[in-house]
Every structure is written in structure tokens, then in C-alpha cells.
Design goal:
alpha/beta; binds pyridoxal-5'-phosphate; seven-stranded mixed beta sheet; globular; three-stranded antiparallel beta sheet; 10 strands; about 350 residues
Length: about 350
């Protein structure tokens, strides 16, 4: 039983941050020019550029669209994208990059979700051979899909390696706020390690908005046309812009990410050492991956609200958000403790 009503299934299960809701309501006064020609949209673009050093910022509706638009700015039709096998781009976007961009993904098994220069090098065979797709882009997620973070040193060495190999870097920043909070660095520090990246707002307290940031103006050629053709130019763009502005104001994005990360750390500390529970990856963002016994997995089903039925997994992903509280975490930890205690009791009976 989950008495809190709080889900740990995804940071997308969280609602909208009250400040974002208030910004939406405030934006809903009077008329404004459409398609980003309004004051709020101009301010949102300027604020994103100031926070990240990007040459261009384009708002889109969701993370899959951001990845497709962002990667699409970097490749030609015969070029491919090296990515982690576990990447959202590869497994959770219904083949959007392949379908929409017509590109070939070149997935690499990556322990802990992270690519390394060595793993990338293993995918570079066939360069210059006209029969083979040409690796051109390296896509990585920060935070990764395993809840781990690249350090700035790791990102910079990947950047250097990619430059030396003529590869461009795309960073899926659906949880870039959590990475910046974990690394105690600025968004600009992370953005400087990519050619194009996304800045995720939805998982950070927005209702639904993401930004694509292009670090070099030369790569932004045609970006506005790509966005429109990919059906991502919002007519009432001011409402996406209002959300972004609310998150950037007084670093709300950072406070939200810190709260989510702190709750994940608390959860990990509470679960570690319980019988039948083992953490699968280091907890470096707002996700806790735990390898659990069947009893614990069953007890957790009420807390993860999986939309895809009561499938019981041995490795569960527990996610926190800006709205997760210490009481929520402690209630979940207590439930897991109870289920692992009862397992111990019945095993010793
Ligand atoms: C790493 C990562 N990238 C991108 C996305 C964005 O996906 P969506 O298209 O559902 O907004 C997600 C969402 O879960 C994600 O986890």
C-alpha cells in the first residue's frame, strides 16, 4: 500500500511547479504575437542564451522532438549517430530519429550508461568507405539513462576525442539540471562540452517545454525551418516561453534539481543495506536503480505506477522530482523495510 499517493515511477509523474503555473497564468493576459514573435519568447531565448552561452535557442514541445531537431542539425543523410545502447534516443523514442531524420543509429553497449572514447572508437570502422554509414555524431545523455553523471573531466575528454576524430557532440539534457546540481557546475560548463544540446524543463517542473541549444551559429543554419517542418513551432509559443522563464528566474531550475537529487540520495541511503536490496548504479541524479528481490519488487509496484501493467522487475528505477518530500521518501523506505523484514521472518520460520 502506498499511503502517500506519491509515485516514484518517473519524474514525469510529478505535477507542475507552482511558480511555473503562476507564470502560465500571468502569460494568459491579453493577446500576443504568435510563433515566438512575442515579448516572453524573446526574453526566454535571451535568458537561455545568457545561461548557457548558446548561439541559438529553440523551444519545442518535448524531449524526443528536441533530440530529433538537435541531432538533425548535425548530420547529413549518409551519416550515423553513435549512442549508448541504453539511450533514450535508441530505445524510447519509437525510432523517431531513424524515421524522421532517416539516420542510422550506431548503438554501443555502455556500462552505467556512459560512453567513453574507447567505446566510441570501436564504432568508427569503415570511415571513408562509401559502402558504410559514416559516423558523425556522438549522442550522450547527461544525466544518463542509468542515473549516472559524466564528470566535467569525462565530458571534456570526450569532447577532445570527438574533435580529434571529426565527430560532433549532441547532449541529451532532459535532466541536465540534475547533472549541474550534482556536479555543482553551471549550465554553461556543461553546454560548452557539446555542439548542440537539449535543456530539459518538463522533468524539472514545467508543464511541457524543452529547448534545443545550438552552441555555434554556423550549426544553426536552417534550424528554424527544421523546427517548423518537424511540427515543433508552437503558435502560442509564449506559453512555452513563460515556463522556461519561470524555471530560469532566480535559478528555480537548480533548486528543483537539488531537491530531486537530495531526495534520491536520501532514498538510496535508506535502501542500501536493507535485505533483498542492492543499488545497481551510483546515484548521481534523481534516479535510484535498485536490484531487488521478488517480494520487494512486488511491494514496490504501488509506488511506481507503471502504465504498462503489473510487470514485476528485478531492477527497479525509482525516481524523485522537485516535489518529492522527505516524508515521501521515508514512507517508501519503510515500506521496503517491512517487505524485506517479512521475507526474512518467513524465511527463518
Ligand atoms: C534521457 C531522456 N531523454 C529524453 C526524454 C524525453 O522524452 P519525451 O519525448 O517523453 O519528453 C526522456 C524522457 O523520459 C529521457 O529520459
Amino acid at each position: 500500500m502506498n499511503p502517500t499517493g506519491r509515485s516514484f515511477g518517473s519524474d514525469n509523474h510529478a505535477g507542475v511547479h507552482p511558480a511555473v503555473m503562476a507564470a502560465l497564468a500571468a502569460a494568459n493576459t491579453g493577446d500576443a504575437t504568435a510563433y515566438g514573435e512575442d515579448e516572453l519568447s524573446r526574453r526566454a531565448v535571451a535568458a537561455l542564451q545568457a545561461a548557457t552561452g548558446a548561439a541559438r535557442a529553440l523551444l519545442v514541445f518535448n524531449g524526443t522532438a528536441a533530440n530529433v531537431l538537435g541531432v538533425g542539425l548535425l548530420i547529413r543523410p549518409y551519416e550515423g549517430v553513435i549512442c549508448a545502447e541504453s539511450s533514450h534516443l535508441n530505445v524510447d523514442e519509437c525510432g523517431a530519429a531513424e524515421r524522421v531524420l532517416g539516420t542510422k543509429l550506431l548503438p554501443v553497449p555502455a556500462p552505467d550508461g556512459k560512453l567513453t572514447p574507447e567505446l566510441i572508437a570501436g564504432r568508427l570502422a569503415g570511415r571513408g568507405d562509401e559502402h558504410r554509414v559514416q559516423a558523425r555524431v556522438v549522442e550522450l545523455a547527461q544525466v544518463t539513462e542509468a542515473g549516472t553523471c559524466y564528470s566535467l573531466a569525462e565530458l571534456r575528454s570526450l569532447r577532445e576525442y570527438c574533435r580529434s576524430e571529426g565527430l560532433l557532440m549532441y547532449l541529451d539534457g532532459a535532466r541536465i539540471a540534475n547533472a549541474a546540481a550534482h556536479l555543482n557546475c553551471s549550465l554553461a560548463d556543461l553546454a560548452a562540452c557539446a555542439d548542440v544540446l537539449s535543456f530539459g524543463c518538463t522533468k524539472n517542473g514545467a508543464m511541457g517545454a524543452e529547448a534545443v541549444l545550438v552552441m555555434d551559429e554556423r550549426l544553426a543554419e536552417g534550424a528554424a525551418f527544421h523546427r517548423k517542418q518537424q511540427m515543433q513551432l508552437g503558435s502560442k509559443l509564449r506559453f512555452l516561453s513563460a515556463q522556461v522563464l519561470a524555471l530560469l528566474e532566480d535559478d528555480l531550475w537548480l533548486r528543483n534539481a537539488r531537491q530531486a537529487n537530495a531526495m534520491a540520495a536520501r532514498l538510496a541511503a535508506g535502501l542500501a543495506g536493507l535485505p533483498g536490496v542492492r543499488l545497481a548504479y551510483p546515484v548521481e541524479g534523481n534516479a535510484v536503480f535498485a536490484k531487488v528481490s521478488r517480494d520487494v519488487a512486488t511491494a514496490l509496484q504501488d509506488w511506481i505506477f507503471h502504465a504498462d501493467g503489473p510487470e514485476v522487475r528485478s531492477v527497479v528505477r525509482l525516481m524523485t522530482s522537485f516535489s518529492t518530500t522527505e516524508d515521501d521518501v521515508d514512507a517508501l523506505t519503510a515500506a521496503v523495510r517491512r517487505s524485506s523484514d517479512s521475507r526474512e521472518t518467513s524465511a527463518s520460520a
